[in-house]
Amino acid sequence: xxxxxxxxxxxxxxxxxxxxxxxxxxxxxxxxxxxxxxxxxxxxxxxxxxxxxxxxxxxxxxxxxxxxxxxxxxxxxxxxxxxxxxxxxxxxxxxxxxxxxxxxxxxxxxxxxxxxxxxxxxxxxxxxxxxxxxxxxxxxxxxxxxxxxxxxxxxxxxxxxxxxxxxxxxxxxxxxxxxxxxxxxxxxxxxxxxxxxxxxxxxxxxxxxxxxxxxxxxxxxxxxxxxxxxxxxxxxxxxxxx
Length: 242
What we know:
The chain is mainly β. It folds into 2 domains: 2-108, no CATH class; 120-223, no CATH class. Helices cover 2% and strands 48% of the residues. The protein is built from 1 helix and 16 strands. The protein has an 8-stranded antiparallel beta barrel. It has an 8-stranded antiparallel beta barrel with strand order 9-10-11-12-13-14-15-16. It comes from Mameliella alba.
């Protein structure tokens, strides 16, 4: 559950990139400093930050990478701020690439697997304006308040209809997933399919309406069951533009 921004500095600057990384636990200013490569796969950068005592410390490493399917360059980072190592990527939106800016967005590295839904509680409520939803999802290990914000970049049927956002301690929005409007093959009822990056891993759930809720603005979040026969995009994930 991470978000942030990264900006390429002028070639004469001491650091190659400067930015911020946010989570529900912290907001940290980071820098990427060029380092001497010892081999082809050794890191291109050291990731540094300033601790509470004002001392600059190394908190990770980063590599210049190229997308296998898109051919677009991005930066892969492995960082540890004392809570255990995590991976994020710094990528550019289509608009940023076309404008040839030096701005990148930091997004979570999507894992190939998903956690078991288990015992999940949650609720989703349609807002009166902006075609948005507010909700929460919780179990015994985590409790997240989130918003569903309409995806203004949707250009294909498989792209998500909404992005799922939570807030960092300083109020910065963090994208933690995607959501799709869908319809049950069995009942014909509308529901919302969500893919969320929780502290325990990637989680798939559905927001549905029971008989009492139907026609209203409130949905109940339930675990995703593969055999329900409900429609859902196969490529659900943390697509940046989708």
